[in-house]
């Protein structure tokens, strides 16, 4: 595996993006595995707080920002519990990483590990790191239930209709097991500034007002996501009634409500899948 050698140091930067969790996180696992010093990093990228290309609609409103701040706060706490911390910066990831390399006097063998994305802005970030930071860039795939390398067809031949996709993969393509981290992560480089979490005011976004009628009263973060998984499956058995309640509109329990956590990577699709398999074995089967 590639490593970063600067004198006696081997350093890796784990750039969190849409994978804000500890469990089943190949990016964090790989970065931690191959280096002596680990920098878990999250960048509040300014482009996420600009207007959309068409019509200038805000990309990040108060509720989304609140969920994101919850998720980052929770991720930092979980990293601390593993003997590490989360380095937080405001700025473009490619520039932040370049600044870290300069500040810490890291060499060209520095390793940056990140989860691969397919959307335009995120791809540009990846290309910017590769072009401007003079590092070894390692990408992982962790957003989907089925791993890209396990599909029985090339991505360009992906069926346009979900039913066709399901027919090709269901019961034919194995779901990979979740990746487990060690109980303790590699230490941060000495003297590295961790950085404070930003506030709503930093982005000119008002704090959200929670409506008591909301069907999503949950905070962001891995801890909240795992608690929701436990509640929906084991504490209430709501998952066994999903087919009957999934088209409801009132209250928090007519559906899983996993979507925001999945979108931010606070919980992995494989974690949900294997927990469902365990539930079906111990309680009852489900569609």
From TrEMBL:
Pfam name, any one: DNA_photolyase
GO MF, any single term: FAD binding
Protein's GO biological process: photoreactive repair
Cofactor requirement: FAD
Alphabetized InterPro entries for the sequence: Crypto/Photolyase_FAD-like_sf (IPR036134), Crypto/Photolyase_N_sf (IPR036155), Cryptochrome/DNA_photolyase_1 (IPR002081), DNA_photolyase_N (IPR006050), Rossmann-like_a/b/a_fold (IPR014729)
Residue ranges of domain Photolyase/cryptochrome alpha/beta in the record: 10-145
Residues involved in FAD binding: 242, 255-259
Manner of cofactor binding, per the entry note: Binds 1 FAD per subunit.
The entry's keywords: FAD, Flavoprotein
Keyword Flavoprotein: yes
Annotated TM spans: none
Family: Belongs to the DNA photolyase class-1 family.
Protein name: Photolyase/cryptochrome alpha/beta domain-containing protein
Species this chain originates from: Arion vulgaris
Phylogenetic placement of the source organism: Eukaryota, Metazoa, Spiralia, Lophotrochozoa, Mollusca
Name of the gene encoding the protein in the UniProt record: ORF155361
